[in-house]
C-alpha cells in the first residue's frame, strides 16, 4: 500500500513479548507489504533456515512463532545490529539469526517446532512473511516377518508382514520391482502400521517394503533367505511324515515276518 492522503496502513508495536498490529487512518503512512504464507517441511533432528524477503538496511527485524498464530516473539535484530534469540526457553541455544539478511536458522528440530513463523522488517516500510513449518519424525527401517507358508507340488507361497511405527503422514507400501502392489496409512498416532502380502517364494528377491512421508523414505528389501523359514517348516513336516511312513512300513514287515515264522513252526 503506497503512502498517500487519507489511506489506511498498518503499524507495529511490541508489548509483553508479543507483536501487535493496529490499523490507522493517517495523512501519510509507511509502505506495507506482505507475501503469501510459505509451506516448509523438514525432518526432526535436522537444521533449517527460514529465508525471508530482502530486508532493508537499518531495519528492525522481529521473528514471532505460534502453533496456529505467530504471537510469541522468539528473535529480533535491533537497529544497532544487536541480536537477541533467548526470548523463549523451548528455543534456547537452537536459534541463529543473521543480522544482515534476517534469515532465521533453527537447529535440532523437534516435533513441537511445527507451526507458523512470521518475519517482520520494520523501517520506512514494513515487510512481512509467514512460514508454515511442519516437522516430521525420524523414520525407522520397516521390518519384515514371515507369518505363514503354503507349499504344494506346483508352487510355494509365503505370507509376509511389513510393519513400522506410525507417524505424521506416513504411508507404508509393498513393491514388486518398481510396481506398487499395496499401500496403507492411518491417522491413528502413535500406533504400529502394518501391511501383509502373499508372495511367490521363488521370487522373493523382487519384493520390497517402503515407509515414506513427505521428507524421507526407508526401504527394506525382502530376500530369499528371509522366507526360508516357511520352506524349512514345510520341509521339516515332510521329513517327519516320511519317518512315520518308514516306521509303519517296518512295523508291518515285522508283523509279517513273525506270522511267517509262526506258520513254519507249526
TrEMBL record:
InterPro entries: Ig-like_dom, Ig-like_dom_sf, Ig-like_fold, Ig_sub
Keyword Transmembrane helix carried by entry: yes
Domain Ig-like: 142-220
Residue spans crossing the bilayer: 242-261
Entry keywords, A to Z: Membrane, Transmembrane, Transmembrane helix
Entry protein name: Si:dkey-102c8.3
